[in-house]
Write a structure and sequence with these properties.
CATH class: Alpha Beta
Number of domains: 1
Number of helices: 14
Shape: globular
Oligomer: single chain
Helix content: 40-55%
CATH architecture: 3-Layer(aba) Sandwich
CATH topology: D-Maltodextrin-Binding Protein, domain 2
Structural class: alpha/beta
Strand content: 15-25%
């Protein structure tokens, strides 16, 4: 073989092997996996999922492929969590609220007004509290890989702007199937209606419910402006998004493959959070252009809303345990 041909062949081999640097190629099997989640693919969570898929593909040298099933194609969050536990689905991305039924400590994220900004949120989910919560999933036949960001939750409704508890009183508001959210909005005088997400748009359109609460990205990609007039920037809770793998699958993976998934998720989460935060300002402008009215309660009004929710905060802090709540508060304080 001519020298130039030998060099070209060697270069081609090196390029193919490059993604496997640091990994033993023999420890990586050909796999095609199912990754299901509830948001649309265009949402920052969907973009993060695609980044995760691409990184796994790259780090495995193309051996591990993941097919994404966005927009509840494989079922609701509760259904896909169950399917992943059973090994029917390989990987699931879900908001943390439905996980509370499996691991009660996940309700720490649902405590009203626990977090004030993204820096505090990163400190909580990436620090000891978040990592301990991911570890707790193993007892439930799940392996927690990392946390993406869903974002701070805000209230939309078809009646009027919300600034005070009196504005919430009497509203029929859809909440996640999670006791903290149900109790919190009941405390404000609302009729809290737990409902699976796929049913929400139709319920808002028909007037069966008046309101719902979600981060801006969810409001936008689901076109809630078509059925809701008002967005109130309450930021009453921060919603992470857990990426979890079936433990049945995890236990079949080699250490090399396990590392690929962990490393890829932790890289993808940083990208996903950047996308999420960059898009919020654009989304707010677009929602306004689509005719939604957006209002921001004053700090004093938000403090009043938080004060109204103190009985709920106290109740679930006790359920969660003083140690966990203190750990969370310490993590948040350290991020200042």
């Amino acid at each position: 073989m001519p020298v130039n041909a030998r060099l070209a062949a060697a270069l081609a081999v090196a390029l193919i092997a490059a993604p496997l640097a640091g990994h033993a190629a023999d420890d990586i099997q050909e796999r095609t996996l199912k990754f299901g989640y509830s948001t649309f693919e265009a949402h920052p969570l969907g973009q993060g999922a695609n980044k995760f898929v691409a990184l796994v593909d790259e780090k495995s040298g193309g051996k591990i492929k993941m097919k994404v099933y966005p927009a509840t194609q494989l079922g609701s969050e509760t259904q896909t969590i169950s399917a992943t536990q059973g090994g029917v689905q390989d990987i699931v991305g879900t908001s943390t609220a439905p996980i509370v039924g499996l691991v009660k400590e996940y309700a720490i994220f649902d405590l009203p007004f626990l977090l004030a900004n993204e820096k505090q949120a990163d400190s909580l989910v990436d620090g000891p509290v978040g990592q301990a919560l991911l570890a707790k999933l193993q007892d439930k036949n799940l392996v927690g890989l990392c946390f993406f960001e869903n974002g701070f939750r805000n209230v939309t409704n078809s009646k009027h702007p919300i600034n005070t508890a009196e504005d919430v009183s009497g509203l029929k508001i859809r909440v996640m199937q999670n006791p903290v959210y149900i109790d919190a909005f009941k405390m404000l005088g609302a009729n809290a209606v737990p409902m699976p997400w796929p049913e929400v748009y139709t319920a808002l359109e028909s007037g069966a419910i008046d309101a719902q609460e979600n981060p801006f990205g969810i409001i936008y990609v689901n076109k809630l402006n078509e059925v809701q007039k008002y967005v109130s920037v309450t930021k009453h809770a921060y919603s992470p998004w857990a990426v979890m793998m079936s433990k049945k699958l995890w236990d079949k993976l080699s250490p090399t493959e396990q590392k690929i998934f962990m490393d890829s998720c932790n890289e993808a989460k940083l990208y996903q959070r950047q996308v999420s935060r960059a898009e919020d300002a654009k989304i707010i402008a677009e929602l306004k252009a689509r005719g939604m009215q957006i209002n921001e309660p004053t700090p004093a009004q938000l403090a009043e809303l938080k004060a109204k929710m103190q009985p709920v905060i106290a109740k679930y802090s006790e359920t969660l345990g003083a140690d966990l709540v203190k750990q969370a508060q310490d993590s948040i304080a350290a991020s200042q």
